[in-house]
Write a structure and sequence with these properties.
309 residues, alpha/beta, 7-stranded mixed sheet, 12 helices, 39% helix
Length: 309
């Protein structure tokens, strides 16, 4: 995803001279094309994320379109006060791009894991939050972000994320994508866990269960219509996210279902409420949190058993 983002933004910058890219001393081997193509619009701000956000806000208020790029904990948590006061309070046109969604930086440990960023960013007034599910969504959402006015948080995977969409879907900020049809249950996924959610639907299909899959690439504003439709047409809804199950996609979908008065079964599948105490790669840590395709499919099957009682 990060390479797709960088390549897409570079292409957009060739058409829009207001686009700028700021980095907190990282992204090399990823951001060189932008740096070499537009050296006067590329700023390495060093390991000084609070200052970087403040500078981006000033650039935006001066008429530029800055994108800020860093690893998620440093792009969101280290500088949260500046994101809140300098960007969102001013309704500044700053795009914050966080790389390494969820447990993507596996062996680097909890300091580099992103388990609460969606909760933080969705809580801020004026902030739009998007989490592409694959490189295709990344390209399309990056292009849309250029014309979007106002603060936006773009949550990316680390790299090597598989392509899910074999054709280019219609992508609109605030509207989910129907990835797969099904009427027995619905899985709503966001971000780089989408491939595991798709694999889980294929396992369930082998068990004679047709599961609808929705890519909810925009968490704020949330697509209430696609949720309402799924609740009416399937008897159980499950959210899958590589983020804390507290105050992430699942909580947002749960709030929407409650507001709609839905009686559909609803369960959240996400990261456990803990810091990781083991060292492991990305997939190892996903499995430790019940996010492998096999574990997701098992959770769906177990929950649906209660419908028959």
């Amino acid at each position: 995803m990060r390479n797709t983002f960088a390549d897409t933004l570079t292409g957009c910058a060739a058409k829009d001279r207001k686009l700028m890219l700021l980095t907190g001393d990282l992204g090399f081997s990823v951001l060189e094309r932008f740096r070499d193509s537009f050296p006067d619009r590329f700023l390495n701000m060093g390991i000084s994320e609070a200052n970087m956000i403040g500078a981006a806000s000033g650039l935006a208020l001066g008429g530029m379109k800055p994108y800020v790029y860093s690893i998620i904990p440093f792009a969101t948590m280290r500088c949260f006060e500046q994101v809140r006061n300098d960007v969102c309070y001013q309704d500044a046109d700053v795009k914050i791009v966080g790389v390494g969604g969820g447990l993507a930086y596996g062996t680097l440990g909890p300091t580099h894991h992103a388990r609460e960023d969606i909760a933080l960013m969705t809580s801020l007034p004026n902030m739009t939050v998007v989490c592409p599910g694959d490189p295709v969504e990344t390209e399309l959402l990056t292009k849309l972000s250029v014309s979007h006015q106002g603060p936006m948080y773009i949550r990316l995977g680390r790299g090597g994320d598989p392509v899910i969409h074999q054709s280019r879907p219609d992508v609109e900020i605030g509207k989910g994508i129907m990835v797969k049809e099904g009427n027995d249950a619905t899985i709503i996924a966001t971000g780089n866990i989408l491939p595991n959610a798709l694999a889980a639907t294929k396992i369930l299909e082998e068990k004679k269960m047709k599961v609808r899959l929705i890519s909810m690439h925009t968490v704020k504003p949330l697509d209430a219509d696609i949720i309402r439709k799924a609740a009416k047409e399937t008897d159980a809804l499950f959210t899958v996210e590589e983020h804390s199950a507290i105050n992430g996609l699942g909580s947002a979908v749960g709030d929407a279902l409650h507001a709609q008065g839905s009686k559909a079964m609803f369960r959240k599948i996400g990261l456990k409420d803990r810091f990781e105490q083991v060292v492991g790669n990305h997939e190892h840590l996903r499995q430790a949190n019940g996010l492998s395709p096999e574990q997701i499919s098992s959770a769906v099957l177990e929950a649906r058993k209660t419908l028959r009682k």
